[in-house]
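the three lines:
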Amino acid sequence: MLLKPKKPVSSSKLVVWITLIGFIVLVLLPTFYLISYVFLEWDEVRFEVFENPIIGDENWKQMLKVLFFSFRLSFSTVIFDLIFGIPLAYILARKNFPGKSLLEDIVTLPLVMPTSGFGFATLITWTTVAGLGGVLGLNSGLIPLDAFIPLVNVPFIVFIVHVTLTFPYIVRTLATKFRSIDITYEVASRTLGANPLTTFRKILFPLSIPGIFSGSVLAFARSLGETGATIIVAGVSSTASIAIVRWTSEFKLATASFMGSLLVIIAWIIILPVELYLGQGKRSLNVPFVVPISLTNRILKFENYVSKKLSRLKDLVPLFIVAVTVIVPILAILNSVILYWSADPYTGKIEGGVWNQLFGPSQYFNILLRATLTSIIVALVSTFIALCISIPLVFIIERKWYGPPIRSILKIPLIIPTSSLGLSVLLLWVSQGFNLIGSGIWLIILTHIVFAVPVIVESMIAAYEGSDISMYEDSARTLGATAYNAIETVSLPLIKGGIITGFILAFTRSLGETGATFIVMGRDITVPALVVNMVEALAIPAALFTSTYLIILSMFLLVIIRITTRGP
Amino acid sequence: MPNVELIKITKRYDNVVANDNINLAIKDGEYVSVIGPSGCGKTTLIKNIAGIIKPDSGDIFIDGKRVNDQPIEDRGIGYVFQNIALFPHMNIWDNVTYGPKVKGWSQKESTPLVKEMLDMIQLSTRVEAYPSELSGGMQQKTAVARALTSRAELLLLDEPLGALDVKVRAKLRYELRRLVKDLHLTALHVTHDQEEAMSISDRVIVMRKGKIVEIGTPFDLYIHPKNIFTANFVGEANFLEGTIAHILEEGSIVDLKNGLRLRVTIKNHKIDDHVVIVFRPEFGVIRDKDDNKTFNRLSGNVIEILYSGNIVRYKVKLVNNATIVFTISLSIQDPKLSVGDNLSIYVPPEHILTYPYPKGGLSKELSLE
Amino acid sequence: MPLIKLVNITKRFGKITALNDINLSVENGEYICILGPTGAGKTTLLRIIAGLLELDEGEVYIEGQLVNDVPPEDRNTVYMFQQFALFPHMDVWQNVSYTPSIKDWDNDKINYVTSEILEMVRLAERRDAYPKELSGGMQQRVALARGIASGARILLLDEPFGALDARLRVNLRSQLRALVKSQKLTTIHVTHDQEEALMTADRVVVLRNGRIEQIGDPNQIYSKPRSIFIANFVGGANFIEGNVKKVDDEGSLIEFRDDFQLRVSTPSTNVGEKVVVTVRHEDTLIRTHPVIGSNNFSCHIESRIFIGDSMVYVLKLENGITKSSKGLLSDNYVIHNIGKQRIFSFQPGKCLIFSYPQTGLLQEIEAV
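prediction for all of em together
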């Protein structure tokens, strides 16, 4: 006998439909519109990029150069992240020591920090007298602005900023993955005679390859799309994301959208194989060649030596990196604000002081207040709407047969460079698309919803899958709770932590977002965008103050995250 | 064939003392089990020996060498986990050859032992299989083989059969013991299952609240336990309160109230001492009602009858309102009783144990949690 | 009319058939144990009854009503998980009063019912504790109390003792049975522990590879197992492979290794047929002299295993086959020393006879 469908419950059907429509219109369409736009407007693209009557294909050459630079930068960033992120994640996942939760907070900080403010702090730290240079007694910054890292040929300061901002993605993803792997595998390996390093190479590493890949994908995408901090520190170098912002502001929409599409497509070509591989749920990578026994023995000896003699080193180097990239910039910018408070300490000019710029003729304080209001409205409204879509969406993902594909699709907005995303939203809602909304605060909100939804959903799913929800729900159902009752009384309270964390992560991300916001904001400026404008207007003391203000705000939010997630 | 010695081992977790001043010596080639209720510190004990945790104080010697500061991998132990912990990304062959590989032994050196172990657990034909493709019992055998190919001589077993079906468990425990004895290993086996411990061990350690309560052979622990807790933990028993009424030449008379009196063989009590008498359910003999010997007789009404195969378990309410449990084997006799019937049982004095009444009360002493 | 009726239930997971054509009726107030090894389909069956899993074929009736399409909350069943699934964010009181409060009873009634039930499971003093502060045994009692408070008449227990210590289980078994009987609940209890099943159930359902192998009261399952698999799985038995030599009024004469012969009181069908004779470990005796009217074989004691209340002996017969004997340790039981020459004796009436399984004997009795 064939089963009849379950009793249709009209209200729950309605919720599912509204959620799915909201998801498609607010999240999916904006994500994919950019590429279709390029096809629709192909003639214009060709005209601007390849067959410009004045400059020929100069734009195309420019594009290739910028793209090449961006990918070089992102790759080297991810490699560096991995080398130092893996040991740090291991420490966070497996060791207990005083100050561990503080360390975790510090690692997470760049995740919630508005990038433009933080980029500025890093710039001050490395390239000015007010930063490390001054501390070490130099008359200039520790590193000249145009210092390049050999081999990969990217500016040192850009590299540092990218490492700092992407580091938490690797460390957090990996630490979570490590924690999810039963520690008894490692203990078993130790009892079988393997030292800690060999154990890591043969057990933990192969088992956490999916985590390593997904962390790398996130970090890579983040680096590719980073705009706020890069714009401040990049100087003459231009990344793909910055180029998109610049071309959009010059109204070269076709060029910008072509570039955005290229960025998306190339990112996908790199990321897709990884995703497919992870989707297969393979056990591990099999080494296809036989390693000679003499070599393995040499590796074993080396690992023995390192495990016994140098174990401190692998703990200390990542800690040092975290300290230098996260804490020092914060201290440096605080220090600078104090130094510059009343006047420029070097020239003595009052106009060069923070006080004067804020309250003096330029009236930056009023602008800052207005920007803060815009930022908070945007963050609150976009996160709230995203939350309304995300909560039912998580239950759809976990229970419906079409849930898993939705979950895969949701990763796309996360790995699309934000400036491409901003452009896509602009094209969709403004003149070229629906023509419903103009640039400004509402458009910013629509943009932020696109990445807020996946952020909240991921965080909720982590909580959902980590706490045996289906068992508790089944239990509630047989105790007489309807599906709706069970969600309300059992599931939602149990994943409360995940919801709050997701909310705050999305909120801070919205608060700090620069790349996309720049493209869609029109005249409604947000605080991170303001920092960029200040730097470009060379109002350095005002930028110092605004950056500090942003950093303190995000640290405050981080404290809230810790309090809410630490509870039972 | 190493021996193990623990001297004054103490380990605290926050406010809980998991191991409280433990002294213990295990001889070469001995099979020793540790039993006790959840949270008694038995797992902490073997983790201390393995080096998975470090004791707060005290010394651990393996084969006469102090190993407190040795990392796990240098202690020469094999550890078998309750959750089996076969490496999920390696097949059976790679799992079993893991120890030799990470120790850098040449294949020529290790392969014969590996093959021998695989033959012993009858898995030689399935070396390509991954752990998830094997049954729980097979997986645990592989885990034991894996521990042995790294030439461990001290086997630490942490609830090794806990994840398996009762039936599989009962079969594997004998295989475990045989393996340990055939290969002349020393084994320390942690379990919450007293029957498992009794059936395979040379000696059993009973733990409670971080302390060792008693150590003895299974038979001694069951027949002559030194305290009420052990008597209760190693198997079902009847516990009755009473006072010493008379001291005789060959023992004492215990008064259980309402005219119930039992003779016991123990003499070292004073008249009016508050005592607990203990006897096992299977150590009673059914007496005819009209048998006129009333010596050491307990009578009452059957209030519950439970069958477990050919063993019948009667719950009897005595005239002093205490309930006792009494089991007989149907292959020896079948009294054909039903609920409500009167039952009269003779309890031989030599099978009655007597203990002073515990200070904290009897029910606290009998608590298994 | 049976309270629960399962008709031709089949459930597949991909290529694996987890349940194959299951038919079962459960009467009101009955205590049923579903017994079987890991992977037999026990939990799948329980989840189908609860409505937590959809079935591929067949019908589930509760109180005469077809409930295939009825959601779990309307089936009058309550499902207790092995890990108890107490809601971690609620205290004992909130857990137990869960159903009354979501059903919006008035407060007085909720308070009355909840305190009544907490009293019954002796947890009134721990009403403000959270699940993680309770011991395993207490958690089990809270889960039971929560189930009873839900007002469901059918209790579905998935390995209710699985998370508890072995020694504790023995004490709690009869308590659990007494509690559900006093509440007049109908219970279906899933377990892989045959002793647990025999001691708690009114009827036992033996499940193997998704099929019901036998249904019967504990005594039937134990003394009249329908297959070699059950004879081995429930209790434990000696298996003797042999051929039917003669069939007469007193039963059959079986010849096994080295022309040894034994008598079985049940007649078998064909002379010459290859058969397996089973006799339970505990139905055999070790004696110094032959027992009249029994099968007697001289043997020597190979090893002895003390398992608490009983002693198990492993014996070697003179034709080289190894058998076991188990007996309760009591005052009329003699302890035999290893190496001694003894008589292994069992009555023809205690033997069962099965035709030799097509897949081989080992396949049927290999538990691992």
